[in-house]
Specification:
Length: about 220
């Protein structure tokens, strides 16, 4: 391998120290190994620098930041309390209005029916009896007891008819002695049968002769 090239050793160049007014180099050293080394380095691919190591996720940055001061609680607005009170009052008013409307829509319950009495005292009957010797006028008070409410209601609805039937029957029987209890009992039994033949929905249980007064 050639390491040094000395121009002084070349023949014909002893006197040629100047050429064109410029001095010629006396010695030119060429390093062949350096040339090949440069070519090998140029052929090698460039090595990329290794990326810098990643820092831990935001822990260090968070540690460097100054701690935030604790936030003071915000004072409650007085309007919030007023709004809550108004809302509660509105709910109460709506519930009260709904209750009132429900009561208005529901029809009132009918009053309980009073129990129908099964006994009644009839107005006095004034009966005249015309005899051969004299005319006898008597006032009779009757008391009727019914077996059920239907009989009592039907008798009241037919009051005029029933009184006319009873009056004609009393007039046909003749005068009644006020102190004759057996005659009174027999007359009551006959009147009970008479009323029951006339009623269609109920029955009379008993008819009593309360008083017999002469007029």
């Amino acid at each position: 391998m050639l390491q040094d090239l000395n121009l002084a050793d070349i023949e014909g160049l002893e006197g040629a120290h100047l050429e064109g007014g410029r001095p010629l180099p006396k010695k030119v050293e060429l390093d062949i190994d350096d040339m090949f080394l440069e070519e090998e380095e140029a052929a090698k691919p460039e090595e990329k620098p290794a990326p810098p190591a990643k820092e831990e996720p935001e822990k260090e940055a968070a540690a460097e930041l100054p701690a935030k001061p604790a936030e003071e609680p915000k004072p409650r607005s007085p309007y919030l309390k007023i709004g809550l009170i108004a809302g509660a009052a509105l709910v109460v008013a709506v519930l009260a209005a709904g209750l009132i409307l429900s009561k208005m829509k529901t029809p009132p319950e009918p009053p309980p029916k009073a129990a129908v009495p099964l006994e009644m005292e009839l107005s006095p009957f004034v009966v005249n009896h015309t005899g051969r010797e004299r005319e006898v006028i008597q006032e009779l008070k009757l008391f009727v007891a019914f077996s059920d409410a239907q009989g009592r209601l039907e008798f009241e609805n037919k009051t005029l008819i029933m009184r006319d039937i009873i009056f004609r029957f009393l007039q046909g029987r003749g005068p009644l002695a006020s102190n004759d209890n057996k005659a009174k009992s027999d007359l009551g039994t006959a009147l009970t049968e008479l009323i029951n033949r006339t009623l269609k929905q109920g029955q009379a249980k008993q008819v009593l002769i309360l008083k017999v007064n002469p007029v």
